């Protein structure tokens, strides 16, 4: 912890790379841990298909049910991790997140790159483009005026590419950092995990996760719950 505090104090530009584990203390389930979304056997198709563009178009009713039951947590509040990251990044850095819950922004972070988009902005009809509030989408995926399918926000689905602006901003965030802190992610999903390829050779790197990510020896690995770590900062 002392080494982490010193690294943050000395850094000029801190880039956080975050995943679902950052939001689990706020009551939002993660994806790949035991009991996570991808480990459930409730549905006929694997979660990767349930959250795919193909499923959205071919089975909009099944897609909608899955997303509403598993992805929307509008009452969730930012936890200590979101708050500390907001404080640090607002002073000297940026947060690049895989999360689609908007909790980093809700915590007051001003410099956030939502790598996979989010569930709440730009919810729109695929046929006419009309936008809807998320509360309307939760009730119904159909746009009855033109029989179009309503799509949940800017979220990147399986089978879709990353928004070029988000990808470019994320790469710049990693390139500019002299300290990179990875937190709450298995770091197995690409292209997100590939972002560290843009890390400067001089940049320090810290990985905070319940399980060791197996990164190279130059990385300071803190095997602990991220909430415990950020509560001590």
UniProtKB/TrEMBL annotation:
Coiled coil: none annotated. The keyword NAD applies. Residues 1-233 form the Deacetylase sirtuin-type domain. Its EC number is 2.3.1.286. The keyword GTP-binding does not apply. It comes from the Bacteria. One of its GO terms (molecular function) is NAD+ binding. This is protein acetyllysine N-acetyltransferase. It comes from Companilactobacillus ginsenosidimutans.
